Hints:
- By secondary structure, the chain is mainly alpha-helical.
- Among the domains are: 25-210, no CATH class; 305-433, Cytochrome c-like domain (Cytochrome Bc1 Complex, Chain D, domain 2, Orthogonal Bundle), CATH 1.10.760.
- It is built from 18 helices and seven strands.
- A hairpin with a 2-residue loop joins strand 4 (213-215) and strand 5 (218-220).
- Residues 31-134, 176-284, 320-408 form the Cytochrome c domain.
Amino acid sequence: xxxRIRWLAAAAILLVSGALLAQEGAVDAAARLAKGRxxxxxxxxxxxxxxxxxxxxxxxxxxTTPVGELVTPNITPDVEHGIGGWxxxxxxxxxxxxxxxxxxxxxxxxPFDAYTHLSRDEVAAIWAYLQSVPAVPVSxxxxxxxxxxxxxxxxWGWRLLNFRQADERPVxxxxxxxxxxxxxxxxxxxxxxxxxxxxxxxxxDAGRSMQGGSLGGWYAPDLRPGxxxxxxxxxxxxxxxxxxxxxxxxxxxxxxxxxxxEKSLSELPTGDIDDLVAWLRSLPQDPVRAGQPAPVPASxxxxxxxxxxxxxxxxxxxxxxxxxxxxxxxxLCSSCHGLDGRGGPDRVYPDLLQAASVHxxxxxxxxxVILQGVHRSAPARPADMAGYANQLDDDQxxxxxxxxxxxxxVTRHVDAAEVARLRAQSATSSRGLRAILIGVGAGVLLVxxxxxxxxxxxxxx
Length: 461
Ligand code: HEC
Ligand code: HEC
Ligand code: HEC
């Protein structure tokens, strides 16, 4: 009798602890999924692996480059078409080293040079989350890069020059806002992919971190305190609001930055945005500009224009656009931005005389906004302005750019050739920059190999 009771008690304890363990396991699994989902958002995987309106993570996003198209793969858990047949280790190698399942080099258009800083735990959480999204049984179309750019083996040259695999270590304690912001910016959000200039072999120039880079016609400004497009003049709240909503005091996020805000930053908790701000403020100062007061955009120049433009708008009939900036502005832009360019009384539309894109170190972003418009569907602050690429020719865009710049007191001159150059660059997708550059790197490498081979042959003779 006693023995039976003891036996029952033991069984009951086993059962209860088993249930508790299972429950704990379920809680663990749920927490890991939530963490994975968060990391995937912060790392902006969706921007590249999901076609707008398409199936989550099914790939097929086309990265257009002058040497052909690179298409992103399906990373859903489908065994045949996605990464369902991969092991977690293989997945880790892809993110940490940029090595594919069959040992092939992956193109650095996939930002593994940022993801290499993720810890094994973080990658495991991303893996768990990706295993939980619906499998999509469709392969992404194949990439069509031209010879020799389609030879992955040539990427070793690029890797040799530009890729440092991070140590395999747990992430150090992220116990200060700056440390958390840095990890978020460098390992996940890959801010440097766009904001750090490229070196000669088109890797990120580590010595000039966050000092401004060009991509697909756009210019991602220098973000150092006191840098050229100084965000130093913005308060922390204004900077946070720009990152979270895409609208700052005198700047809007357009082009690739609009996508970063829309798909990633606007979805992050406020604490993360504050950490990013803390990190941005901690970047080393621009030594040239250090100590100088932050530039305050001039607001002069508007006086008298409203009356003039009112008259111009009166004479504009919409059929044939004239070639001078004032006429084009009156006809196409003043309905929203106001006859004086100041955005109207309620400032729903940006004040162009103070806009960052107008006051930028170069006119690239102003030209690009005119060509492509502003499209951002972040929930807090959506924005839509149509682009005028089809309506205005290069001369007209140049005239309009110069006219607005002069109104805002910015001295610079853009000509039609410059507009044509940016227009051509914008035809290749901004995300494709890396691939083009890598292609060039690969080409250079090929030449080196050929020279080496011919030298060897000569020596043998
Ligand atoms: C800037 C665009 C971009 C972002 C962001 C991006 N990827 Fe990719 N990814 C690519 C491209 C392009 C490839 C194809 C590379 C190649 O063919 O060599 C790729 C390849 C991969 C592969 C290899 C798949 C295969 O079939 O070989 C995996 C796995 C992957 N990405 C996962 C991720 C995860 C997880 C994230 C977010 C943490 C992410 N990617 C973010 C562009 C991106
Ligand atoms: C895919 C490329 C890309 C990535 C990734 C990116 N940015 Fe940007 N960023 C840009 C471009 C391009 C602009 C200029 C946009 C414009 O003027 O409309 C910009 C503008 C900005 C500005 C406004 C600067 C000014 O002077 O007007 C800030 C601040 C900023 N980015 C911060 C960040 C941070 C922080 C990250 C990482 C979390 C990041 N960006 C990631 C491309 C990028
Ligand atoms: C239908 C209304 C509308 C028209 C017409 C329009 N815009 Fe815009 N514009 C917008 C909106 C909306 C934004 C983005 C606001 C935001 O991001 O919150 C914008 C943003 C801009 C910016 C970016 C400002 C910054 O802070 O960097 C520039 C530059 C600009 N517009 C110039 C023009 C020019 C030049 C024209 C005429 C060719 C024009 N716009 C016509 C609505 C318009």
